[in-house]
Amino acid sequence: MLSLNLLRDFTTSDSIIVFASLPDMGMVGGLTSSFLATETNADLVATITLAEKPWVNVKDGVAFNVIDTYNIFYSKDQKLLILTGNNQPEDPRELFGLCNMFLDFCNSKSSIRRIYTAGGSLNEQSTGEPKVVGV
């Protein structure tokens, strides 16, 4: 079950840029969004939690539910909303739900001018020097 928790309300009449990425191969997406939130002095404005895992974790003999938390940051100066988290949902339906909830939140605050994302990719046939590629 996904739920959104608004921590700090804000509104803007300007259109916003959205950046959303989660950890992936080599943690590229997660590192990128966390770096962007830090470098733009973005404020944590909301969290999305996902608490419907079909398993539990055990620590010190105590079982507890697994709850994933995704953070939404807002940089007023950059007119930028950023989504980041510590992992990706494993079930594609959970990922689609997370994306839809985040985009609905973005649209409730302003019109979206542009959406960016980042991620790592395993390409076993790459040769030569490492490089950055885009799609």
Question: What keyword list fits this structure?
Answer:
135 residues, 8 strands, 22% helix
Short description:
The protein has 135 residues and is of the alpha/beta class. The chain contains two helices and eight strands; from the N terminus they run ββαβββββαβ. It is globular.
What does this structure look like?
This protein is α/β, with parallel strands linked by helices and 135 residues long. It is 22% helix and 33% strand. The protein is built from two helices and eight strands. The strands form two sheets. The protein has a six-stranded mixed sheet with strand order 1-3-6-7-2-8, sandwiched between helices. Strands 4-5 form a two-stranded antiparallel sheet. The radius of gyration is 16 Å and the shape is globular. The mean pLDDT is 88.
By DSSP, the count of extended strands is 8
Q: Main beta sheet, described?
A: 6 strands, mixed
Low-pLDDT segments? none
How much strand content do the residues show?
A: 25-35%
